[in-house]
C-alpha cells in the first residue's frame, strides 16, 4: 500500500501497522492515510474508535498522547493522538484518528479500557460538549 507524503509529494510505503489498520477496518477508515514526516492522519466513524483503540493496544501501541476536540456546526470533532514506534527505524510516530459525533446523538464509546490516560481527556470533552461516554 502506497501513500503520498504531504510534505514533499513523494510516494512512500505505508508502515505495516497502518497497512493492517486499513486492511482490517477497510471502508470504516475514510479516505487515505495521510503522512507528513512521522505523522499519520485519517478519519473513521465514531462507532469504530473503541475497536481501533483495541487494535492499537493489542499491537503494542501503548501511548495515547492526547485527545483534542472542537465544535463544528452539526457535529463534535474528536481527534485521538497515539504515539507508536513504526517504520523501518522504529521511531516514535504520531497517529491521529479523527472521528465526528453528531450533536443530536452526542454519545461515544470510551477508550479508557485500553488507554487509562483517556479518562482525563474524555472528562474534559464530556464537560465541554455535554458528550456521553459509554464504558
- CATH evolutionary superfamily: NADH:ubiquinone oxidoreductase Nqo5 subunit
Instruction: Please count the helical segments.
Output: 3
What global shape is seen? globular
Order of helices and strands: EEHEEHEEEEHE
Specify the oligomeric state: single chain
Q: Tally the beta strands.
A: 9
Q: Portion of residues in helices? A: 10-25%
- Let me know the largest β-sheet: 5 strands, mixed
Number of domains: 1
Structural class: alpha/beta
What does the radius of gyration come to?
A: 15 Å
Strand content: 35-45%
The span between the termini is 34 Å
CATH C-level: Alpha Beta
Q: Any low-confidence stretches, pLDDT <50, length ≥5?
A: 1-8
Please give a structural write-up.
- By secondary structure, the chain is an alpha/beta fold.
- The protein has one domain (2-134): Beta Polymerase, domain 2, CATH 3.30.460.80.
- It has helices spanning 16-25, 49-58, 118-129; strands at residues 2-4, 11-13, 29-36, 39-45, 63-71, 75-86, 91-102, 107-109, 132-134.
- The strands form three sheets. It has a five-stranded mixed beta sheet with strand order 3-4-7-6-5. It has a two-stranded antiparallel sheet with strand order 1-2.
- A hairpin with a 2-residue loop joins strand 3 and strand 4.
- The N and C termini lie far apart (34 Å).
- The model is unreliable at 1-8 (pLDDT under 50).
Q: In brief, what are we looking at here?
A:
By secondary structure, the chain is of the alpha/beta class. It has helices at residues 16-25, 49-58, 118-129, and strands at 2-4, 11-13, 29-36, 39-45, 63-71, 75-86, 91-102, 107-109, 132-134.
